[in-house]
Amino acid sequence: MFPVELNGRRAGWREITVDDAEVVVGWQSVPEIFTYIESPEGTTLAGHRQLISGYVEDGQRLDDRRDYSLALTVDGQLAGTGGIHLRDGDPSCAELGYLLHPDHWGKGIATEAAGLLLRFAFDTLRLHRVEALTRPDNLASRRVLEKIGMTREGLRRQDVHLHGRWHDSLLFAILETDPVPAAPSSH
Ligand SMILES: CC(C)(COP(=O)(O)OP(=O)(O)OC[C@H]1O[C@@H](n2cnc3c(N)ncnc32)[C@H](O)[C@@H]1OP(=O)(O)O)[C@@H](O)C(=O)NCCC(=O)NCCS
């Protein structure tokens, strides 16, 4: 499906464009964003533009789109990135992720945004299962996943190499038959 546009009260998702690259590259100099996730440090503006035009091309071209790499907006302005990636072997299952600029933290934005992704996954894409992985000490992200109705299923030991050492990941998931909180809203 292309293009995707999801709108909540404050948070929204739209297709990422090459024009977003400059802002996204600027986030490399905001270390708080990358405490628990890998930084694209060193990726140039040209590199980001190339990456994004690849997403756009694939999104438009592929009948069986698997990669929904999207721009996260707050009040219509670019404020983060994220999306849903359908599993290669079984596209009824997917993984979601998100990254929000710290200017917008603590206002319920990620909860609203992740909730929009879940409703898109189940209502539009008709997926069966959506997963998310987070570092155990990423308490804000764990809370977001709980608030959108995901269940903690287990711990994957040392499956991410980040900032020079191995880290565990917590696996959260939700099934199409699980209750999804109706309308996560911003504070
Ligand atoms: C994780 C992230 C998306 C959260 O965004 P956000 O918009 O601030 O999240 P929300 O406001 O919707 O919800 C955050 C929740 O975590 C809680 N929280 C935040 N920091 C916390 C902490 N240190 N300890 C415990 N709870 C915490 C908040 O109180 C809130 O819960 P509440 O509504 O029950 O009070 C944001 O911090 C981020 O982008 N971080 C960098 C990238 C990243 O780590 N992405 C996730 C990868 S798995």
From TrEMBL:
<dbReference type="Pfam" id="PF13302">
    <property type="entry name" value="Acetyltransf_3"/>
</dbReference>
<dbReference type="GO" id="GO:0005737">
    <property type="term" value="C:cytoplasm"/>
</dbReference>
<dbReference type="InterPro" id="IPR016181">
    <property type="entry name" value="Acyl_CoA_acyltransferase"/>
</dbReference>
<feature type="domain" description="N-acetyltransferase">
    <location>
        <begin position="16"/>
        <end position="181"/>
    </location>
</feature>
<dbReference type="GO" id="GO:0008999">
    <property type="term" value="F:protein-N-terminal-alanine acetyltransferase activity"/>
</dbReference>
<dbReference type="GO" id="GO:1990189">
    <property type="term" value="F:protein N-terminal-serine acetyltransferase activity"/>
</dbReference>
<dbReference type="InterPro" id="IPR051908">
    <property type="entry name" value="Ribosomal_N-acetyltransferase"/>
</dbReference>
<protein>
    <submittedName>
        <fullName>N-acetyltransferase GCN5</fullName>
    </submittedName>
</protein>
<dbReference type="InterPro" id="IPR000182">
    <property type="entry name" value="GNAT_dom"/>
</dbReference>
